[in-house]
Amino acid sequence: MAVPLVEMRGITKVFPGVVANEGVNLAVHAGEIHALLGENGAGKSTLMSVLTGLYRPDGGEIYLDGRRVNFRSPRDAIEAGIGMVHQHFRLVAPFTVTENVALGLKGGLKLNINRLAGEIAALSKEYGLQVDPQARIWQLSVGEQQRVEIIKLLYRKARVLILDEPTAVLTPQEARDLYRTLKRMAAQGCAVIFITHKLQEVMDAADTITILRGGRTVATVKKGDTSEKELARMMVGREIAWQEDKPVVKKGEKVLEIKDLKAFNDKGLLALRGINLEVFAGEILGIAGVAGNGQRELAEVIAGLRPCQGGTITVSGKKLGQCDPCRVIQAGVGYIPEDRLGTGLVPNLGAVDNLLLKEYRHPRWGRTLMSRKAARQWAGELVEHFKVKMAGLDAPVKMMSGGNLQRLLLAREISSRPRLLVAVYPARGLDVGATETVHRLLLEQRAAGTAILLISEDLEELFRLADRIAVMYEGQIMGLMATEKASVEELGLMMAGSKRMEVGA
Amino acid sequence: MKKGIRVLLMLLLALAVAVAAAGCGGQKPAGESKSGGNTAGGGQDQNQKMKVAFVYVGPVGDAGWSWAHDQGRKYLAEKLPWVEATYMENVPEGADAERVLTELAEQGNKIIFATSFGYMDYVINVAKKYPNVIFMHCSGYKTAENVGTYFGAMEEARYLSGMVAGKMTKKNVLGFVAAHPIPEVIRGINAFTLGARSVNPNVKVKVVWTNTWYDPAAEKQAALSLLDAGADIIAQHQDTPGPQQAAQERGAYGIGYDSDMSQFAPNATLTSPVWNWGPYYVKTVEAVKNGTWKPEQYYGTMKDGIVDLAPFNKMVPQDVRDLVEKKKQEIIDGKFFVFQGPIKDQSGKIRVQEGQKMSQEDILGFNWFVEGVEGEIPK
Amino acid sequence: MPATAAPQNTSRSSGPGSGPVLTWEKRLEPSRLMAVVVPVISVILALAVGAIFLSATGFQPLKVYQSMLNGAVGSKYGISETIVKAIPLMLAGLGVSVAFRMLLWNIGAEGQFYMGAFGASWVALTFPHLPAYIMLPAMFLAGGLMGALWGLLPALPRAKWGVNEVITTLMLNYVAILWVDYLVYGPWKDPRGFNFPLTAPFSDAASLPTIAGTRVHVGLIFALVAAVLLAIILWRTRWGYEIRIIGESARAARYAGMNIERNIILVMLLSGALAGLAGMSEVAGITHRLQHGISPGYGYTAIIIAWLAKLHPATIILVSLLFGGLIVGGYSVQTSGVPAATVSMLQGAILFFVLGGEILTRYRLHFGRKEGK
C-alpha cells in the first residue's frame, strides 16, 4: 500500500484535567474520503486542531507524504496544504466571493482581482461548486457559503481538506451535491477528512472510517466491511436499541390548531406566511425543513414569545392570546426551545432554580416565603427519575454536558404534564446515547397521549419519530404526509422549495 | 466566590485589628512618658513641641486660599521652632469636618486653625468636647470659651486693586468671578468697585457666580463668559488662578487673589490682593503659650500686615503705581476708610451718608451691591 | 457575577493566521483556593506598590499604613467613624445591587440619595414641631418615597420603550443635585446662614438616635435590616426568584412567562428607595440640615461596592465597612504629612489591585503562540 498522504501517529493532547487525545492514530490516503466518526467529546475536533496547527500535540508525530512535519501555527499547516472548513464559516459578509478568497493571500494589494475571479470561476466549474465570484457573501445561501469556503481551500492548493460536520446546515440535495464535489476532489488526488457523528452520512459518503471514542482510536474500517449497526456500537461502546417500529398509539382529540398564522422574524420580514397545522393527542407531527425557513418563528409564536401578525392558535379549544407566555404555559404547552442554554435553562443557576422555572408560581412552595427544602427535594426526585448527571443540585447547569442539559430540560417540561409539547431540534448536537434518550422520552410522551410538534432538520430523526411530516419552506407549509408514505427524495425537493403539494387538511 | 470575599474581609479586619493593637501598644509608652514628663519635669521640656494643626478646605497646592494659609503655617514653624505644625487638606465642609477636627484634638493638638467658613458648626461641636484645646475659626462669627475667630480687612487691598483695574481698563467694563454669595465675597466686590470708580467713574463691574471655592474648570469658564460679555479685566474670589489664565488666553488683564498669582498668568496678572497669615499665627500661638489668649473676633487690617497687595506687574505704569501707593499709605495711616459715605446702592439710593463710616457689623453682614456693580445677589 | 455576554471559553477564536499573543480565557469554575488567595495577594501587592511610591516621596510606608489603620479601626472613635461613613454606602450599595442583579444599570444612586435627603428635609423643615415619633417615620417615608420616585422616572421609559437607563439615571443625578442646590441657595436657605448654601438646622426631633458618645446613628439598623430583607426577598420569595432569573437570562424569564416590564419598575422603585433612605439617614443622622454637596459621591462609590461584593447583601455590608475605613483612614494619614493626593493614590491602588485580582480569579491569561506573518 502506498504511503499515506497524512499520517498521525500516537497523538496525545492533554488539557488541564482532560486527556482529549491519547495515542490516536489516523492515516488518510490521497484519493480517499475519510470519515472521522465519534460522539461529542470523543476528541475529533481536538485531533483536527492538532492537524491544522492550532494545538501542539503533547505527544506523537505527524507525517505528510511520509515526511515528518512540525506545525507551529495554522499558517504552517496551510502552507503544507492542509485546510479546514469550520462549522461556523469564516467569511466576511459584505465582501464578494472573490474578495473573500483574496483575503489572506500573499501579494496583498498587487493582487489582480479580475484574474482571481476568472480562476475562481474555473475552479468552481472543475469541481462542480457553483457560485458567482462577484456575489456578496450575505446574498448566498448557507450551502453556497460552504462552497466558497471549499474554493478558498482549493485556491490555496490544499491537498488535505477537513470538513467539520459539513452537512449539518444542508438540505439532502445540497448534501448530495457536496458528496459529489468531495468525490471529485478525491479523484484529483486530494485527501478529504470529514468530522461527523451521523451514521447515515458516513455510509453515504465515506470510503474509510476511523472511529474515536473517549479520546482513543477504536478502529479504522473500510465502508464495505462494516454496517451502520457496527459503527454505532463502536462509537457508543454498546449496542443501541433502535426503535425500529413505533408502538401504535390511538390518535386522540385535536390539541393544537393553527390557522393562517403570520409572523415577522427579528428583521421585521414576514417569516410565517399563513401556516395551517393540526396536531392530535398521541401524535408526533414532524416539521422538516432547512433551518431558517420559519421553524424557529413558528415555535416562538406558539410559545407566546413572538407576536403574531394574523391568524389564530388554539390549544384544546382555547385560543391563545397575543404574545403571553404565561397563558401558554397555563394552557398546558411545554416547549423545548432550540436555544437550550439561555432560553430553556439559565446557565449560571443550579438545577433547583432551573427546574422551578415554570413551577415557581405554584402555591405548594409556600404562600409568601418559598420553601427551599421542598423545592430541593422535588428537584432531586426529578433529577433522579430522569437520570440527569450533575455535580450537584446547586452547581451551575452550564457545567453540564449537552445530553444532561437536554434531559434536565425535558424533565421540567414533561413533569408539568403538558397537553402539547413543542420540541425544536431536540437532539441537535447530542451524541448517539443522548439522542436515544431524547427520542425515547418523546415517544413515551406520545404514548401518554401528549400532542407533540417536533421541529427537526434531521430526516432520520423525523422518520423514526413522526407520525406525519410537514415540510416548511420560506414560511409556508410545502406539503404534509403520513410518514410511511413519505420518501426522502420527495421531502428533499419540498425542503428545497422545488415541489409543492396541496395540503388537504 | 462570595465566600472568598467574606474570608478576605475577615482577614483584612483581623489584620487591621492586629496592626492597630500593635500600634496602640507601641504608642502608649510614648504617650505615657509624654504626660509623665510634663508632670515630673515641670515647665516646657526642650524636646516637647507644642502641636498645632491646620484644616484646609482645598489642596495646599491650590495657589490660593489654602496655599496662603499653608504659607502662614510654614512661617509659623520657621519662626517658632518649638511648634509642630501639621495640616489636613481637602477636608469637605460637611460630615467629614467634624471627624477630622475630633481626630486632631484627640491627637494632642493644642491649637487647631479651621480655615473655612463651613467648618463653623463643627468647630463649635468639637470645641465643647475638648475644652483644653483652642480652636481658631477663620471667617466665621461664632465664638466660645475656647473658640476664637479671625479674619482680615481684605476690602482694603481689594479697593487698591480696583483702582489699578479702573485705571487700566479700556472698555470700562470689569469682570468679577464671584464664589459664593456670602458677605465676605459681596464685601470684596463692593470694595473693588468703589476703588475702580474712584479713579474712573464710568466703570462697570459685571459679576458671575460660580458657587465654588475650588473648581478650576468652572471658574475659568465663568471668566471666559465675562470676557465674552465685554470685560477686559477679570478679578476674582476663588482659590485658583483659572480666571487669570482665561484672561491671559484672550489677551486681557486679570487681578489675582489670595496669593501673588502672577506666576500662573504672567502676561495678564496686574496685581493680587493677598493674605499674609504668618505673623498672626505666630502671635496667636505665642499668646496661647503665654496664657494670654482670649476668645475674640480678630479682624486684621493692612496696617497689621495681614492683607496686602502683591507687587505690580511690569505693565502697570508708574503713575498708576504712585496713585495706588499713596492711597495704600493713607489706609495704613488711618486717613482713609474704604466704606465711607457717600455710598449708593445699585438703584442709586444713598445707603451710607456723606461723612459716615459703615459699622463693622454692617460690613460683616454686607448683603447688597454698591452702584456700578452689574449682577444680582441670589436671595 | 450575573454575566452579561460572558466571553466564551475559546482559545481558538483567533482565525488562522492572525492569532493574538495574549487572550483571556474564562475559567470554568474559579477555584476555591484562588478565591481566597488572590484577594489577599491583591491587597498585599497594592500595599507594596503604595510602599514603593511612599518611599520614593520620602515617607515611611509602615508608619503611614499604621496610621491609616489606626485612624480607621485603631480606636473606638475610629471604628465608630468608619461605621458612620459606611452607613450611606451600605444603603446605596444595597440599592444599586438589586437593580444590577436584574442587569438594570442604575447609575443614579447619587441622585436618588439627594432626592431622599430632599424628601426627609422637606418634612423636617415644613413641620418643625412634630414630635420625634411622628417626625422620624415621616422623614423615613418621605426619603424612601422620593428616592423611589427618582428610580421610577428612568424605569418607566426603560420598561415601555427600552430607553437605556444608564443615560437616564446618570442625567437624573444632575437634575437632583441641581434641585437641591436650587433649594439651598434659594428658597430653603437659612436666613441666618450668611448666604451659605445650607438650610436652617432641623429641630431636635428630626435627629436620628445615636449610640451614646458617637455619631453612629439608627441608619445602621436600617442598613442591616435592609440587607436581611433583601436576602430574604432574593432567595426566599417568588419576586426575588424572578429578579434572579431576569438578571441571569431575560430570554429564559420571558420563556417562563415572567413580566419583565413590571419587574423593571418594581426593582427600580426598591433600588431608588434604598438610596433615598441613605440620603434621609445622612441628613437626619449626621448633618441635621440639607446643604450643598451633601454626598461626596456616595452613589458612585456604592456602584463599586456592589460589584466588589458580587451583589451579595451581606458582603455589601462588609465591603462598605472596608470602604468607610479606607476613607476615614485616608484622612488620618494626612497627619503623618502625606498629602491628600497621595492618599487618594493609595486608595486607588488598593481598589485597582483588588478589582484586578477579581478578574484574575475569573479569567486566566492565555499565552498563545506567536504566529508568523
UniProtKB/TrEMBL annotation, chain A:
What are the UniProt keywords, alphabetically? ATP-binding, Cell membrane, Hydrolase, Membrane, Nucleotide-binding, Repeat, Translocase, Transport
Top-rank taxon: Bacteria
Q: What's a GO cellular component annotated to this UniProt protein?
A: plasma membrane
- Domain ABC transporter, first and last residues per copy: 6-239, 256-499
Q: What is this protein called?
A: Galactose/methyl galactoside import ATP-binding protein MglA
Molecular function in Gene Ontology: ATP binding; ATP hydrolysis activity
- Give the enzyme's main class according to its UniProt record, as a single word: hydrolase
- Report the InterPro entries cross-referenced here: AAA+_ATPase (IPR003593), ABC_carbohydrate_import_ATPase (IPR050107), ABC_transporter-like_ATP-bd (IPR003439), ABC_transporter-like_CS (IPR017871), P-loop_NTPase (IPR027417)
Q: What is this entry's stated membrane topology?
A: Peripheral membrane protein
Show the Pfam families listed in the entry.
Answer: ABC_tran
Where in or outside the cell it occurs: the entry states: Cell membrane
Q: Which organism is it from?
A: Neomoorella thermoacetica (Clostridium thermoaceticum)
Give the Enzyme Commission number. Answer: 3.6.3.17
TrEMBL record, chain B:
User: Is Isomerase among this UniProt entry's keywords?
Assistant: no
Task: Give every ABC transporter substrate-binding protein PnrA-like domain span.
Answer: 50-333
Query: What are the boundaries of the signal sequence?
Result: 1-22
Q: Which UniProt keywords apply?
A: Signal
Zinc-finger among keywords: no
InterPro entries per the UniProt record, alphabetical: ABC-Purine-Binding, PnrA-like
Q: Name one GO cellular component term.
A: plasma membrane
PROSITE patterns per record: PROKAR_LIPOPROTEIN (PS51257)
Instruction: From the Swiss-Prot or TrEMBL record, give the protein name.
Output: Purine-binding protein
Q: Which organism is it from?
A: Neomoorella thermoacetica (Clostridium thermoaceticum)
Automatic annotation (TrEMBL), chain C:
Keyword Cell membrane among UniProt keywords: yes
Q: What is the lineage of its organism?
A: Bacteria, Bacillati, Bacillota, Clostridia, Neomoorellales
**Which molecular function GO terms apply here?**
transmembrane transporter activity
User: Record's Pfam families?
Assistant: BPD_transp_2
Q: What is this protein called?
A: D-allose transporter subunit
Comp. bias (Polar residues): 1-15
UniProt-listed InterPro entries? ABC_transp_permease
Give compartment(s).
Cell membrane
Region: Disordered, residue numbers: 1-21
- One GO CC annotation: plasma membrane
Query: What UniProt keywords are attached to this protein's entry?
Result: Cell membrane, Membrane, Transmembrane, Transmembrane helix
Transmembrane stretches in the record are: 33-62, 82-104, 111-127, 133-153, 165-185, 216-235, 264-284, 290-309, 316-334, 340-360
Claim: Cell membrane is one of the keywords in the record:
yes
Main localization (coarse): membrane
Q: What is this entry's stated membrane topology?
A: Multi-pass membrane protein
